[in-house]
Amino acid sequence: MPLRGFAFLIVYFVLLGFPLLLTRTSDDETVLSSPFIALRFLIVTAVFAVLAAVAGLWGWLAVRFRVDGDDLVVENGLLRKRARRIPLSRVQAIDLVRPLVTRIFGLTEVRVELAGGDQGEIALRYLGRNAAQQLRAELLARAAGLPGHTPEAPERPLWRTPFGSLLGSLLIRLPVLATVLLFFASLMFMVVAREPGMLAVAVPALLGLIRAVIAPMVMYAGFTAALSPDGVRLRYGLLETRMQTVPPGRVQAVALVEPVLWKALGWARLDVTVAGYAGERQALSSTLLPVAPRAVCLHLISQVFSGTNVDAVPLVPASGRGMALDRADGAGTDERIFVSRHGWPGRRTDVIAHARAQSVRLTVNPMQRLLGLATVHVDAPPGPVKVDAADRELGEARAIVDAVAKRSLAARRAGGDKARWAR
């Protein structure tokens, strides 16, 4: 309630409060208003403070939730109540989010991600830290098919990203280095040639650096990954801290990204498509590891897709790419996963488990039609990871489609019901 009222007052002060205290003279100068206007300001502020408190109290009383058996029931409204009953089997992930302001009050927001796209998020605001952790543990247990009083599963630390490694990984990327050179070159030219118009180049370059370096630093500071029976646990954030738990079976596809300058240091990034996230929430939750040794990334993939070894899958180079500079490029499959690797001098390896494949399709563009080639797409739910094998001979592409379709069907039948994975 205080947080909602505080936000309401901030909007008031920006739009109405401060202008009430200031007046403009005939010399076009801004000065403090007269005592009478100041008194009017205090009266209006008091009224808005009462309205803010009422609005905060109303919003707090309007939301109720409870766990009823295997369902989460969320009720909204005071005069006109609406109840939403969500089966916990639809839970895709549960995040504990603590924005900067709520951390001051020791509060936490519980975000429950459901299968359902843009409308699949439920935000339970704001709980005490211990209450939020207990609620998260209960929801995860029930979603896994266990009793609600099951204690939180222990975790095994996997990786903690050092601050220096995170900063270095953000800086030693070719686009970032090019932007840095552009920024300083434009500043030097502006000073030497006394050309203020170069600000039109320097300012966008600076904004690009803030987005590419500062924003990820703030977001992923203190990043840690741990493994537990209830999934992969991620903790990160400088201003807004987040604890994200991705249950087993919710990861649909992963991408091992190795920019050219990272390869010399043995670094990689692990991107992921998680079922249930959509839109902006997908973008904010698409990184499983921001930077880590390649061996750590491969180990995490083997945990997400149990019993797999990406490097052990034999890859067949694409037809029409006989002049490829990196002969490690290609696509291949085994009984568990489909792997596609491409890119030079940087490299990207896309991986999807057969049990996660939504569909397999073959496409041919006009140029490929002339050359007798095709592209095979192994589709996962919408997300940042797209798995495909491009420029394959038409007969080979059709064989890949048939093989992947059969393996996906067999993997789904053998996997059983994933809704209650703990059983």
How many strands, which pairing sense, and closed or not: the largest β-sheet?
7 strands, antiparallel
Fraction of residues in helix: 25-40%
Computed over alpha carbons, the radius of gyration is: 27 Å
In percent terms, what proportion of residues is strand? Answer: 25-35%
- Shape field: globular
Low-confidence stretches: 24-33, 321-326
Instruction: Output the number of helix runs.
Output: 12
Terminus-to-terminus distance = 40 Å
Can you walk me through this structure?
This protein has 423 residues and is of the alpha+beta class. It has four domains: 2-61, no CATH class; 64-153, Roll (PH-domain like), CATH 2.30.29; 162-220, no CATH class; 248-415, no CATH class. Helix content is 39%, strand content 30%. It has twelve helices and 21 strands. The strands form five sheets. A seven-stranded antiparallel beta sheet has the order 8-7-6-12-11-10-9, with helices on both faces. A six-stranded antiparallel beta sheet has the order 15-14-13-18-17-16. A hairpin with a 2-residue loop joins strand 10 (224-228) and strand 11. Helix 1 (2-21) packs antiparallel against helix 2 (35-61), helix 5 (163-171) packs antiparallel against helix 7 and helix 6 runs antiparallel to helix 7 (199-220). The chain is globular, with a radius of gyration of 27 Å. The protein starts with a helix and ends in an 8-residue tail after the last helix. This is PH domain-containing protein. Residues 60-138, 221-284, 335-402 form the YdbS-like PH domain. Keywords: Membrane, Transmembrane, Transmembrane helix.
